Amino acid sequence: MMECSYQEPIGQTTEVAGRFAPSPTGQLHLGNLRTAVVAWCAARASGLEFLVRVEDLLRIPQSDAIESAQIADLAALGIISDRPVVRQSERSHLYEAALATLAERGRTYECYCTRREIAAEIAASVSAPHGRSLGRTSDHYPGTCARLSERKRRQHQREGRPAALRITGTTTEISGTDLVAGSYSATVDDFVVRRGDGIAAYNLAVVIDDAAQGVTQVVRGNDLLESTPRQMFLQSLLGLPTPAYAHVPLVVGSDGERLAKRHANTDGGVTLRELQSAGQHPGDVMAGLLMSTGWIGTPMSASGMIPGEIVEEIRATRNRVDLGALAEVLRDKCGEPAHNPTLNWRVTPHSPICRDTL
Q: What is the pTM of this model?
């Protein structure tokens, strides 16, 4: 068993930064924007640069237009990248180099399984006697292709089956401490690092990009907390630093479900442009987002301010502003959902996780 816990990144790089990394698949809604605001304030409060990275591994025809709209929405709130925006679709050479390193170290193998085949084998192992003793969850890969014979491998190749690449990580125990969610641990399975279509998997790409850009602080939605042990495992294999992680609560609609575009039908505007069309100023939206964090008390104290002034407002009222202080407030807000009557949304409660497998 290998233990990995958070530690300050080591190395000679002077590029230390926080980041926000949206995918250009749709407009940023209030949940996305809240995470961006928290990440921006956390970076500024910690004296770090702030970066915007476009995670466009899976591009669609509208990707360029959506990216431009997302960057414009961030700029309207005063959130601008300190360096040129980086796109994952332009960095495949970095991911291929990392995959080559892992292969040289004997840490990857080809996988020809379809999702249906994986689901069937997992179901069979669970229904068999003592199947649960393996501690697998519904998405824990059972290691089928790790045991694949050469004859079967050649058969799959003749049939033209595409091969994904999986990392060898079976039963590796990963532990960490998230600045908001608290302590967690998980057993990492043999997860995919390159898809069957040749595109790098998200977990690999994000690890390489964070290290290459000198990202030492990752603030993102708590829906990505379960991905963190896998990313920490890759960091340990590749000798890369582990950033400080802070996974913040998600925004939900009035129905209690994670905020989505469909909530515009019941909750009013859920994107900045919809709210602007309804007469709201970006500064008012920023105030509502900050109110949900607990960093400011009343909407009037932030209305019309630019983000830099808001950080100074927080500093003046709380004596200090750094990631630890911001995380303390976020943890306090996790206990009681914070409803925002102006924008008709609230923040989900959140508690630390401890899972057998991820």
A: 0.82
